[in-house]
Amino acid sequence: MVATFIFDFDGTIADSLGAIVAITNRLAPRFGYEPKSPAEVADLKDLHTRQLLRQSGLSCCSVLWLLRRVRQDLQREIPHLQPFPEMIEVLTTLHQRGYRLGILTSNTADNVHLFLRLHGLSPLFDFVYTGATLLGKRRPLRQLLRRYQLDPATTVYVGG
Q1: What is the per-residue pLDDT for 65?
Q2: Are residues 70 and 92 in the same domain?
Q3: Labelling 49: which of 43, 67, 76, 93 has CA 20 to 30 A away?
Q4: What cellular component terms from Gene Ontology apply here (predicted)?
Q5: 121 lies in which domain range?
Q6: Is the dihedral of CA 4, 160, 78, 108 positive or negative?
Q7: Chain segment 124-158, per-residue pLDDT in tens
Q8: Number of compact structural domains in the chain
Q9: Which residues have CB under 8 Å from 154's CB, separation 6+?
Q10: Among 79, 101, 118, residue at a domain's last position
């Protein structure tokens, strides 16, 4: 029986793709890559780290600086972002049925908490764990399970 649902934040709860595309395109000249369309940015999400580095032409260090800057700039956009409408109902229903809800994100905890507070969603979540990296979410997910003493057999991850 499922006891806990862990959600990705960007693109699952928060409709943030447009803001992320605008920020990364604005930073393109500074970091030396070509601006991307929303579809191209969405496709990058499915790439492994080496593929992402190869396709972008950026060094690992440059990508890390870029991601840091995107997170910082995204903080200014958080008040303008909306949750996906269907997610509000899903999250509310799961919470009312007694499931434990959490978030695993590569975004900052401050950004996520601000978003949740602005949309009245804070009371629905038991935790926000920031740890997803360029290397994927497998390792941070294992860390999250240990930290919150969650049984993998009764935990569901929802997101990309």
Answers
A1: 85
A2: no
A3: 76
A4: cytosol
A5: 4-15+83-158
A6: positive
A7: 999 999 976 655 678 889 999 999 999 999 999 99
A8: 2
A9: 1, 2, 3, 4
A10: 79
